[in-house]
Design brief:
six-stranded antiparallel β-sheet, 6 strands, single chain, globular, alpha+beta
Length: about 170
């Protein structure tokens, strides 16, 4: 009898976990659908990028995030740059103006832009010695912020070309 009670309790516990995971998955799918609707209906680029970033942060439970757009409009056609467009942060109030960043392997966003592959970093201050990229520590110092984890994802067009970068920072644990 005790064995059956324990087994029943374990099954109930597993069912609660599965139900929670299913609920989260359904919520995430609805959020992704909202992004899809926004993509097809919003014509203001800055507003659209803000929606994409807010929903991406919500889905990944990130404290902060930024979006960079590939800028092909430089004088030298071979010199593409990333234009910093949008930032959001739940912990500190940050105002940042647009700026350009060279696309190179020295920055995390530049590295992801060149590789076309996502990059998931557990600790931005403890990068492998072989890394060609580093974080901008000035950002943390200026804003009294500590970047810990970072998920950097390329945004691609239908031809597979990288058109921008989404950077999601400090996954919340609660």
């Amino acid at each position: 009898v005790i064995f059956l009670l324990r087994k029943n309790n374990e099954e109930q516990f597993q069912n609660k976990i599965l139900h929670s995971q299913l609920t989260q998955s359904i919520y995430n799918q609805k959020e992704l659908n909202k992004i899809g609707v926004a993509l097809s209906s919003e014509h203001n680029l800055d507003k659209l990028l803000s929606i994409i970033l807010a929903e991406s942060r919500s889905i990944t439970n990130s404290d902060s995030g930024s979006i960079y757009i590939v800028d092909d409009n430089s004088i030298d056609s071979n010199k593409r740059e990333l234009r910093f467009k949008v930032t959001q942060n739940d912990s500190v109030n940050i105002f940042m103006e647009e700026f350009k960043l060279p696309i190179s392997e020295k920055s995390i966003a530049g590295y992801v832009c060149l590789s076309g592959e996502p990059l998931n970093i557990d600790d931005a201050y403890l990068l492998p010695a072989t890394s060609t990229f580093s974080i901008n520590k000035d950002y943390d110092f200026t804003n009294n912020y500590i970047t810990k984890s970072m998920l950097t994802i390329p945004m691609k067009n239908r031809d597979g070309e990288v058109t921008g970068i989404i950077q999601l920072i400090n996954k919340k644990t609660w």
